[in-house]
Fold this sequence. Notes:
Layout: E1 4-13, E2 24-33, E3 36-42, E4 51-54, E5 59-62, E6 64-66, H1 78-85, H2 95-103, H3 107-123, E7 126-129, E8 131-132, H4 139-152, E9 156-161, H5 172-187, E10 193-198, H6 205-217, E11 221-226, H7 234-240, E12 245-248, H8 254-261, E13 266-269, H9 271-277, H10 285-290, E14 294-296, H11 310-321, H12 325-339, E15 356-359, H13 366-369, E16 376-381, E17 384-385
Parallel strand pairs: 1-4, 1-5, 6-7, 8-9, 9-10, 10-11, 11-12, 12-13, 13-14
Antiparallel strand pairs: 1-2, 2-3, 5-15, 15-16, 16-17
Helix pairs in contact: 3-4, 4-5, 5-6, 7-8, 11-12
Bound molecules: N-(iminomethyl)-L-glutamic acid (NIG) and fe (iii) ion.
N-(iminomethyl)-L-glutamic acid is lined by residues 70, 94-95, 98, 197, 225, 228, 273, 299, 301-305.
Amino acid sequence: MASEVITGIGALATMHEGEGTLGLLRDAAVVIDAGRIAWVGPSGSAPAADRATDAAGAAVIPGFVDSHTHAVFGGDRTAEFDARMSGAAYTAGGIRSTVAATRATPTEELAARTHRLLTEALRSGTTTAEVKSGYGLDVETERRLLEVASRFTDEVTFLGAHVVAPELADRRAEYVDLVAGAMLTEAAPLARWIDVFCEEGAFEVDETRRILAAGREAGLGLRLHANQLTMSGAAALGVEMGAASIDHCTFLSDEDVEALASSDTVATFVPGAEFSTRQPYPRIERLRDAGATWAIASDCNPGSSYTTSMPFCIALAVREMGMSPGEAVRAATLGGAQALRREDVGRIAVGACADLVMLSAPDPVHLAYRPGVQLVDRVWRGGVETREWTPRD
Length: 393
Ligand code: NIG
Ligand code: FE
């Protein structure tokens, strides 16, 4: 693979050196070699490489790390969204209509749909994406979804505990047994993570504890849908069990915030879900004051947040949650990497993956300052400039 030097970068967001929250280096250069960052420094002293690219003053940031997506599903829920925007409430029940559509969709069609969604995400600057199952809810369909997800990413999450499968609606204990038993056995070799939707209408705290414990026993890392619709005990449970991330966090108590701050669990916010469900946005001040770590993710799914756009989520987080533009861009890159316990993405440093986004803007602040504008100009993923999400080898 040919090496490449990108010079004339007006603002390079390294996340770890230089100025401010984003670790900005001005008039900088980056060298890419064999898929990794090989050199970072002042543009004037950049070494030569096989190829040279002039950024002409544009900003360069790490590719977005979207640590929470449900990007394998059939159908969509246009009518439900339309009704909600006319006043209907969001409930966990809508998930079942996507389960029916997903079960009826052949595997190769699911894979083609996921590929389209991830390509859409890449064109908005996402270079790492977690992908969950959770619209199968039977052993065979969950296995198909995990197999599709693993064609595209290392960050595969088993979410058999999304809601109780419709055919076991009256026998929830049986469904919990299935998820923590036969379904998990089938899922574990295909996944890195296990997740549970712990919420009214989905799974209770005790059921969640049992499923997460079984997942851990099977070698999976823990993540959680927590405190999305109510102030449940889910957030506290996630921190107590050492989850890498608790996601949504729309409603957090002061105790939850304190617990987060003294743990290495990341709070992942998904403001696209607040947008699409007309829920109140959580505020960031208490987490900032307490010193907690947070991320932003898209939560891309057909029910509560049908967007792949991290720039859209950044703009929402700035306008509606009280994040500074720098905090939001950091949360969408380094924060996502922390939520996935990854050190090789979400930053621009020697040895990190060469996942880079060149903006048609002089400063990353423009991602919030110019909402709704396509500012992602060029994307490198694994050192290769691309417009398409290439499957894993
Ligand atoms: O993250 N909260 C649970 N799961 C998804 C929504 C799923 C759906 O409505 O289809 C979420 O918001
Ligand atoms: Fe989700």
